[in-house]
Amino acid sequence: MPWAVLFGLLAALLLLLLLTRRRTRRPGEPPLDLGSIPWLGHALEFGKDAASFLTRMKEKHGDIFTVLVGGRYVTVLLDPHSYDTVVWESRTKLDFHAYAVFLMERIFDVQLPHYNPSDEKAKMKPWQHGVLTTCLWVNLVVFGSPCSSSFRFLLRSGYLTLYGVEALPRTHQSQAQDCIHSADVFHTFRQLDLLLPKLARGSLSVGDKDRVSKAKGRLWKLLSPTRLASRAHRSTWLENYLLHLEEMGVSEEMRARALVLQLWATQGNMGPATFWLLLFLLKHPEAMAAVREQLEHTLQRVEQPVSQMTTLSQKVLDSMPVLDSVLNESLRLTAAPFITREVMVDLAMPMADGREFSLRRGDRLLLFPFLSPQKDPDIYTDPEEFKYDRFLNPDGSEKKDFYKDGKRLKNYNMPWGAGHNQCLGRSYAINSIKQFVFLVLVHFDLELTNPDGEIPEFDLSRYGFGLMQPEHDMPIRYRIRP
Ligand code: HEM
Prior knowledge:
Layout: H1 3-20, E1 32-33, H2 43-48, H3 50-61, E2 64-69, E3 72-77, H4 83-87, E4 94-95, H5 97-108, H6 117-124, H7 129-143, H8 150-163, H9 172-201, H10 206-222, H11 225-229, H12 236-247, H13 252-267, H14 270-283, H15 285-302, H16 314-317, H17 321-334, E5 339-343, E6 347-350, E7 356-359, E8 364-367, H18 370-374, E9 403-404, E10 407-408, H19 426-443, E11 444-448, E12 476-480
Parallel strand pairs: 1-2, 3-8
Antiparallel strand pairs: 2-3, 4-5, 5-8, 6-7, 9-10, 11-12
């Protein structure tokens, strides 16, 4: 029998198997929605615009349901009162790392021998975010103007802070070199970052594959441990991480790949977070006025000209409730990570309202806080609107009491995740963003080149990857403040 016919028969047999062996819902399990396409299920709608798809599913099935997505059964939980059960469950039952390892391999080609995420986490603590915050201040000052995009500005400063600078003491020449090198890192990183959703979903075109491979190759060279070895003022974070990789016996090539992965994990969300924050301020003059007023107070309290400052102390950073509220509100509207856990054993999952659902081993569990609590009209009035004081009490302190169904919520805004795997870099990230905004607003007057321009739409393919990114930039005009 010719090979082609044999392959054809095998393929038909496989398809028949797939079509006939469709899963059915067992008693006690969440509603099951397989979609109309065998195996693929809802993969296309999910990949195109996850938020709209999950909203439709929620309207159809309620706040817990299982959908088939590209051969995987994903149980989606959208009741924020029940999130704690998931995020504090033990790793032996609901595991964060299996999915993280899958992405690590698929996106960044990183495979680490004897990889133990808990061990890595323990070794990488403490983050010493105080020291990092001071270093970042210096690097932000080096770049000195918002003329390039906020993403570029923050990534370059963040990169130099964690991965080290050309030389110490810093000279004009070494700073110029830092500018050139970090611009190269940013530019190449961005080429990869733009294709990341397609890369994660395995839907790159031939041309895209070529671009991704070139960007990765270049980044592996730029961040190779040999090249980084000569850099000065490397962070303790980097030193610890390199030591950890060395102890695991990771090859030089694989170490470079791991460093690229870390660049994305530590920097990928910071620029977009700052972009949205500044844009909301520029679009809402009352918010900008309130933030500026608070910065004036801060400056009076510090009693030191900005030009002589070497950092903002943690005490000062912690006493800016208006800016905190603006940041929380801006993250509420734009942070859309998937909180994903692998179901490791058959499990009975209790919901906050007393219901209990059975989860199957091998399925995936997904929380999507962007829909609820963050955009939930039962929790936030006019949830689509930016309200700079949403997280402020009338006395100016931070507002923390939000309710759904008459019950106070513990998780009312989750840009950093929650529970065992909550973002480790949260304090450093918040400090960085606040320092950046402080420096920009103290030194410059800014306005949108087109003040009536609409706020850009989201790039819908990025749901699940952290901060949403805009479809396009928003040009600004600025002048140095007298
Ligand atoms: C705006 C900036 C950032 C946002 C919105 C953000 C958000 C997140 C989220 C949502 C998670 C996953 C939580 C989960 O699935 O349960 C996470 C994990 C993590 N983040 Fe961040 N992150 C940011 C910046 C950073 C920075 C600057 C660092 C390091 C310097 C960092 C280090 C980490 C690490 C190590 C984890 C994994 C924690 C674990 O394994 O348990 N992040 N982050």
